Amino acid sequence: MSDTNSKKLLDAIKQKGKNLEAEMSFFEHLEVLRWHLIRVAIAVFLFMVLAFVFYDFIFDDLIMGPLRTDFWTYRMMCLLADKFSLGADFCVTEIPINLINTELAGQFTLQINSSLLIGVMVGFPYMLYEIWRFVKPALSDIERKSARGFVFFASFLFATGVLFGYYIISALSVNFLGNFQVSNEVTNQITITSYLSSIATISLGSGIVFELPIIIFILSKIGVMTPQFMRSTRRYAFILILVIAAIVTPTPDVITMLAVTFPLLLLYEISIIVSENVQKRKLKKEKEFFNS
Hints:
GO molecular function, one term: proton motive force dependent protein transmembrane transporter activity
Function: Part of the twin-arginine translocation (Tat) system that transports large folded proteins containing a characteristic twin-arginine motif in their signal peptide across membranes.
Order of helices and strands: HHHEHHHEHHHHH
Largest sheet: 2 strands, parallel
Keywords: Cell membrane, Membrane, Protein transport, Translocation, Transmembrane, Transmembrane helix, Transport
Number of helices: 11
Oligomer: single chain
Family: Belongs to the TatC family.
Subcellular location: Cell membrane; Membrane
Structural class: mainly alpha
């Protein structure tokens, strides 16, 4: 066998070995990811069981909260109405909604679904922690330092968004829709499934939307997003925020729309600052590299 053929054979064997090594590495990463997902599922299940055990508090104080006139949001609205003379209509004194169940297993399904929902919300920080553990080995030391605090800030923003959606958007939506009537002959008989899905969608949706600064941080790190682009498209972002506010809030009243739009605009401005800080750090590192 000639030297040329021997070299080609050796190169082919080496290439085959590299392909097998890469394939094994891929499946090893899948295995690691699988165990991260299993741990997340176990954590969510445990929180779900705890929610199921303490369901009386969850149902009476949390789920049914926006239907009571002594809910925190309504009490604050009454205080504002008295202090700034906003009128009696601004103070919530009645929410004429009667919840009904139309399915045989409806109430049992409600307890299961709402317990699962609580499990997902409470387990969200742990899910972020498992994601961080999976991604962390692939990052450099500099990238790890710059992303330090990811779990804390992402969890804080998510919790803030959920609380905002629950106490502000959900309360205002329930108040508006509960008191809205096309005719006095029509009463609001709302299924418990419809009510729960509305509260859950609004709360979770707000939590996800409040992750905007984290998303912008990641996009800025990989060079997809820049503060110059965000400033130049601010007017289009404002229109998009109005659309998102209209989707998130099922009510057409101006107060609810403004209550949702203002925090989203604030988040967008904060995201610009975050992107600008990322860009400054990049430019500083490039300058240090060229000067060294």
